[in-house]
Amino acid sequence: MASVTLKSVSKSYGTNAVIRGVDLDIKDGEFVVFVGPSGCGKSTLLRLVAGLIPVSSGVVAIDGEDVTDVPASKRGIAFVFQSYALYPHMSVARNIGFALETLGIGRDAIRTKVRDVAKMLKVDHLLDRRPRELSGGQRQRVAIGRALVRKPDVFLFDEPLSNLDSDLRMEMRVEIAKLHADIGTTMIYVTHDQAEAMTLADRIVVLNHGLIEQVGTPQELYHTPDSRFVAGFIGSPRMNFAPVSVEGAGETKHLSGPGGFAIDLAFSGQGAGAASIGVRPEAIAITGEGEGRLSGLLERIEDLGHEHFAYARLADDSVWVVRVAGRPPLELKGRMVGLAFRDADLFVFDGDGRRLDHHESHERASAAQFREARR
Amino acid sequence: MADVAIRSATTRRRSSASYRFWRRVRQGFLGLAVLVVLVYVLFPYYWAIVSSTKQGAELYQNAFVPALNFTYYRSLFENPVFLGSLVNSTFVAVSTTAISLILGLSAAYALGRIDFPQRRFVLMAILMISIFPQVVVLSGMFELINWLGLYNRPSALVVTYLLATVPFTTWILTTFIREFPRELEEAAIIDGCSHFRILMKILLPLMGPSLASTGILAFILSWNEFLFALTFILTDANRTVPVAIGLLGGSSRYEYPFGQIMAASVTVTLPLIILVLIFQRRIVSGLTAGAIKG
């Protein structure tokens, strides 16, 4: 049980800065997920917390204690690797108990501890097997068992499910959530799969180019992303964007964009010039031509059974995705259609990609807060 | 009609029987090629075996079947000098292999895994050393051996062979350690292992195949070496096998003991063949299977 604090942590290799001044507070017992595109430094940040690589500058503290120069094995952390990293020449039992063996604990004590952990993870019938004789899911359980047996203060997961097929991934995701609910240990989890992030996390940390883009609960990130980057990263299918130009100098400005988009909105912080708008696929409804905010050519409809994705090409050749819950509008395929959405569901981003609050967006934000309060 | 014309022009498919025929022809050629290579590789050794069992004038008849006369072998094993050289060779080859594996492995771990600024320089230096031809270092080495007081002792050969074997064992093992899954080592670090414990408990058990293959190479190299062995050893009692065979004399100065030399060659090659046959399974088996995703 411990909190984790990062104070302006940086890591660079030569002149190549991988992590650029990260500040983060993780509360005791919290489940925090690092997400970001590949190469954003999320795995590096996790290894800095673990102590597997030394920080270039900054402070790492666990449970309020500065551990910046403490070796990995003395930080009270456990690490579950993407490749599982089981020792191939040892049995499952020795794999799980190896850390205790290194500590010099007696054989019998190790055996009972290993047995307890194995039973908890339902791998107690596999204790004499070698890793290569196990399935992917079983290897994953053994890897978690190896972490669990050390009774760590902080669990670190580095994309632990990315090697599993999608069914098993879903199953293990539920089990990891259950594990966290059962033992209540602080967990930091790295993934590029935003579904894992949304379902597992108490708070999500979105990283981009070695910087924290935004920290917040899954709902905060979904409903009130700070930037266009976060808005595009959280949500599947991703948010639709279109460039717009802003005119007017007063409180209320006029926005116009491709597909006949035009709206008057009141917001501050952005003068006339280039900006962009975004709308989530699930907030759009398909209407007849000439109706709605935008118009485009309905090119393709994907029928997934329980939901449907319609792809509309706008005048500027960008393609917007619409999530259709009910019956797929097959008869409209190949025709011009209108895309309708509430003004409250419209996101506006300034030229640098920062989100601008407009007078309608407060409605959405307060609805989100209401939903969260009920959780 | 047009349809047929297009099809025959683009696909030109022959009958199934003709494809079968050409496949057999290809297989036949492949078999022939394998046979040629095998004969080329194995015939010299076979000829040595045949010659070693022939007496006197029989040598000059082109008989391909061994005569199965083991007189030379018997006289060879009654020859104390030859037996002594076998013992010397075994001592030299085994100690050279063991020492170079120990040195090579520890050096390779440092060079492959631990970051230190001079690493590139050290690696290049090791590569440079293994490039020098033996003749270049011979005279300098002679001085060194004299200075160490090892002249005319088999241990002089161990010292000099290390010059050749340590660089290449280090080089090969470094490559292997670099390819070793990084996460496996990180897992061991998290589990509280020191560098030494990682080396002994994680790397060593998994490096069996590469240790076996580099070990065999080092063994063969030191078993077969001639130049240093000839230069640094004076008396018959301390010679190693290649030199002993080279200096094998006949009963009179006009006799060239061809049969005996052949018998000796066959005898000293046998240990190498047995070694390779024992270890080839270990070399082939992939021990790291199952460590990571698979």
Keywords:
heterodimer; A: 375 residues; alpha+beta; Rossmann fold; 6-stranded mixed sheet; 6-stranded antiparallel sheet; 9 helices; 26% helix; 33% strand; B: 294 residues; mainly alpha; MetI-like fold; 2 domains; flat; disordered C terminus; sugar transport (chain A); AAA+_ATPase (chain A); hydrolase activity (chain A)
Report on this model:
The complex is a heterodimer of chains A (375) and B (294). Helix content of chain A is 26%, strand content 33%. By secondary structure, chain A is an alpha+beta fold. Chain A has two domains: 4-223, Rossmann fold (3-Layer(aba) Sandwich), CATH 3.40.50.300; 238-374, no CATH class. Chain A has a six-stranded mixed sheet, sandwiched between helices. A six-stranded antiparallel sheet of chain A has the order 13-12-11-14-20-21. In chain A, a hairpin with a 3-residue loop joins strand 12 and strand 13. In chain A, helix 2 (92-103) packs across helix 3. Chain B has 294 residues and is mostly helical. Chain B has two domains: 15-69; 79-284, MetI-like fold (Orthogonal Bundle). Chain B is built from 13 helices and no strands. Chain B has helices at 2-10, 16-52, 71-77, 80-113, 119-131, 134-148, 154-179, 182-190, 195-206, 208-224, 227-232, 241-246, 258-284. In chain B, helix 5 crosses helix 7. The longest helix of chain B is centred in the first third of the chain and has 37 residues, at 16-52. Chain A binds chain B through residues 47, 50, 52, 71-74, 77-79, 81-89, 98-99, 102-103, 130-134, 136, 146, 150, 163, and chain B through 181, 183-184, 186-193, 197, 202, 205-206, 287-294. Chain A: Keywords: ATP-binding, Hydrolase, Nucleotide-binding, Sugar transport, Transport. Chain A: GO terms for molecular function: ATP binding; hydrolase activity. Chain A: Belongs to the ABC transporter superfamily.
